[in-house]
Amino acid sequence: MGNTCRKALILLAGMPGSGKSIFALKAKEYGFGIVSLGDIIREEAIKRKLVLDSKNMMSIAKELRRTYGKDIVARLALKRILEMLNIHSIVIVDGIRNLEEVEFLKSNIDAELIIVSIHASPKTRFKRLVERGRSDDPKDWESFLNRDYEELSLGLGNVIALSDVIIVNEGSLQEFHQLIENFFDRVIKTWCT
Prior knowledge:
58% of the residues lie in helices and 15% in strands.
């Protein structure tokens, strides 16, 4: 990046299939650090020798939050985030699911903080997930809706509603890339000298 930037966290939220992974890949191209909260859940599933499907992932996510508090995934990721901030001035925390995680990170990390949500309509997201075809993606509309309701039950809707920036991803991949690039260019202009 070549510039000197203030320490900053971009907390990334969005429903499944909205485009968070594409946003994170583009962030890597810009030289930003990435920490995925979903990796915390995946690692727990692997420890338990469970199949990495959406049912098991959601079950673990809910169990951890019920047992240890709604901010547990952010607490478990704190060390990784701090290590990443030692390497990169700007870090994307991918997969914020509730306001308790946001508040925990605000209270425990000395950095600028912005919540960015990626939004796409349910029909658009369903089409993308079916085309993507990952093993944990829903195969039918009912499964898709159930997964959405599960995600919303974690508090994701509140995070999206209180986002500082919402990027609408309803167009082509090229259009979405342009929206992300425009956003990152503004970030650099704001936080970097």
